[in-house]
Each structure stands twice: as C-alpha cells, then as structure tokens.
Design goal:
Length: 409
C-alpha cells in the first residue's frame, strides 16, 4: 500500500541540534530516555478506514509526527511503519449499513486520510501496510505461535493463549478485573464458549457467510486485529522497536495483546516504550465513530480553514492529555497563526537563538508542544512590540518551526 507524499522538511540551521528525546511510556511511571542505537524504529497503529480523518485521529498522528521530528532534530535517522486495518468487523459493518462495497469504502477513506496527512504536513511512514496485503505475514506468525503452544482452536477460529506470555499485563499495568471490564467493548469476546481463558484473543477468524475470506494454510478466513500489527511490525522493523504508539484507547487490549504475541515467538520485549496520545472530545463525550460526534479535518479544509491553523490548534494541547475540541480552539489558532506569520516574515526580530533552544528542548521533553508554542508566542510578541535586535532571526526561527513543529509559516 502506498503512503502519502512527504513534505519538504528543511534542515536545522548550522550549529543547531535537538536534545535526546524522553517520553512517558505506559508501562512505567517514569520518563524514558529513548536514544536509539542506529536507526530509530517506530510503529504507530493506523486507522480502520471509515469516518476518516476526525480530529482525534489528527491529534494522534500529529503527536507521533512530533516524535519523528524530535528524533530527526537530535540527528537520528528514523524508520517509521504504520498499518491500515483495511478488513475488520467495524469496516464490514459500515459497508453493510450503507450498501457500499467494503473495498471501495476502505480505499476511499484511506485516500481521504492520506490527503489530510499531506495537508497537516505529517511525515509519511516508510512502510504503509494494509492488513489484506499482510495476510501471508499473519499466517506465518500464527503458525509460529501454534508451534510455541500459544494457539488453539475454537470451532473454525484460532485463539492466542495469553498465559503463554509471562509478561502479559505489563504494557498496560492493568489487573485482570480492569481488563475484563473493557474487553468486550474493545473487540474482545470474553464469554465465548470453548475459550480457555476469557482474555484469550482471536488470531484467525474462519470464513463467515457473506464476509471476505482468503485461502491460506490456516484455512479460509481473515486475520485477527492484534496479530495484524504484531506481524507487520516484526516483518518491517524487527524487534524490539523503540516506540510503539497509538491512542490511549489502544493500551488494552490492542497493544497488550500484540506485544504479548510478538514476545512469545521472539522471546524478547516487543518495544522499549509504549507511547499513547490522549483522547479528543466533543460536546462532553470522547470523539468517536460509534457516537458520530466527529469533527473531520476534510470538512474543515472544505470550509477553507488553513491546515496550519488546525495543526497549531492541536499543538496547543499536550499529546498525552484528554481535551475537548471547541470552536474557540480554531478561532484562537487562526488568530495566532496570522500574528506569527506577520512576525516571521519581518526582516528582523528579537533574538531567535534562545527561542530555538527552548523549542527543541520542550519537544525533547515528552513532546511538550504547548510549552514550545508559548515560547514562540513570547518571541512574536517581543518582535511585533519593536524588538528587532537580531537581523535574520525570523527566517532562522521559521526554519526550526517547520522542521521541528511541522508548521510551514
């Protein structure tokens, strides 16, 4: 599957390099230094392609774009992989409800996502991989799990034995009661007869009448959700990856299960850090496809909103925080964008060097974009207030904002 075109990212000015990155991982209470050995490797879970791209999606992928850029600012090459769950129950259910071919729905929504990522200047993954094209990888991994004694059949389906991973539960830090409380609502089937453990998860679903299926060594069927990401990450990144990322709603079961499956076959940790973006709400509820309370990036763009204003509005919130989208977010971001552009196109301004240092330091400190934004705004205020002590500062700062914050101003 093809990704989207990459924006041109300017090199940092001569003599400028960002600090090494620290992030909060869900499996520890501490900030972790994520200093890769050689190429940094990041896997971020992609969309199930329908109702793309709402602002919850956008906030997640902007967050990991900041992480990607922070690594690059510190001088590290990055290999980034993202999947597309282009066959799964929610997609098939939407196609059935609307009478649309599921493949056409998936391709249309995936293209809409690509277009939104281009508009928001999100760096594309090096490998953008669909579930359908990854079926051979999934089949191979399920066979490895079966050989390790970690898979068993329930009717025509295959399940993963979570008990075969001694570290199961360490990604989320949740106890069994917490897991069971949400498992059914997040794609699990704890009450299915024949399962050995209520928390065991689906690896391979045998063919169902009227649903897509593929001929494989496992029989006709299609992949389970969690093993899809395990298989893609192992094939395209190896292990352990430096960062496994996604929204905070993926901590359990998705990231817990996919990590355990990989750990059983590889005998080593799946990732060094598990990084999760907070949820974006609207009208007092989490923005979600099931509720339909969505603000779509494509709708805002169609109304003539500058994508850089959308990105700046997102950057005003720390990536790990849960927050609510309001009209004021966009209004404030549009006003701020206009003010910044005025200052950054001036021939001279306040000294940029301490601002550049503070911006890169803020981003390296658990992607603290709000702190970086506030620091830039202080510079803008000083510059428009008449402090023009440094010729060339606006252009130098604009380069850093493009490279590090993804803002083309």
């Amino acid at each position: 599957m093809r990704a989207w075109p990459s924006p041109e990212v300017p090199a940092l000015p001569d003599g400028i390099r960002g600090p090494q990155l620290r992030v909060r991982s869900s499996h520890t209470a501490d900030l972790l230094d994520v200093v890769p050995t050689g190429t940094a490797r990041m896997y971020v879970c992609g969309i199930t392609p329908y109702d793309a791209t709402h602002l919850g999606h956008a906030a997640t992928y902007v967050a990991f774009d900041l992480l990607n850029r922070a690594w690059r600012s510190a001088g590290h090459p990055v290999r980034y992989v993202q999947n597309v769950t282009d066959v799964d129950d929610p997609l098939l259910e939407r196609a059935a409800a609307t009478g649309e071919d599921w493949e056409a729905l998936a391709e249309r929504e995936t293209q809409l996502f690509r277009d939104d990522m281009v508009a928001l200047r999100v760096l594309p993954p090096d490998a953008y991989v669909g579930a359908v094209e990854s079926i051979p990888l999934v089949v191979s991994m399920v066979q490895e799990l079966d050989a390790a004694g970690a898979a068993y059949a329930v009717d025509q389906d295959l399940y993963f034995r979570v008990a075969t991973d001694p570290d199961f539960g360490t990604v989320s830090g949740w106890n069994r009661d917490q897991m069971l409380a949400v498992f059914a609502d997040r794609g699990g089937d704890p009450d299915r007869p024949g399962k050995q453990d209520a928390l065991d998860c689906l690896l391979w679903q045998g063919e169902r009448p009227g649903e897509p299926a593929w001929d494989t060594a496992l029989g006709r069927g299609r992949p389970g959700w969690h093993v899809e990401c395990s298989a893609i990450a192992r094939a395209h990144l190896g292990g352990p990856v430096d960062v496994q990322g996604g929204g905070s709603d993926l901590v359990f079961p998705h990231h817990e299960m996919s990590a355990s499956e990989a750990q059983v076959v590889d005998g080593s940790p799946f990732a060094r850090a598990y990084v999760h973006a907070g949820m974006v709400g609207l009208d007092g509820e989490k923005m979600s496809k099931s509720r339909g309370n969505l603000v779509l990036v494509s709708t805002l763009r169609g109304e003539g909103v500058d994508p850089m204003a959308i990105r700046l509005a997102i950057l005003g919130h720390h990536y790990r925080s849960d927050w609510e989208w309001t009209a004021a977010d966009l209004t404030d971001a549009e006003a701020r964008l206009a003010t910044w552009r005025k200052a950054l196109t001036a021939p001279a301004g306040a000294s940029a060097e301490p601002v550049i240092t503070d911006v890169l330091s803020a981003l390296a400190d658990d992607l603290d974009a709000p702190r970086a934004v506030a620091r830039v705004h202080d510079w803008v205020t000083a510059t428009l207030g008449g402090d023009t002590s440094d010729d060339g500062s606006p252009a130098r700062l604009a380069t850093v904002l493009d490279a590090a914050l993804g803002l083309a101003l």
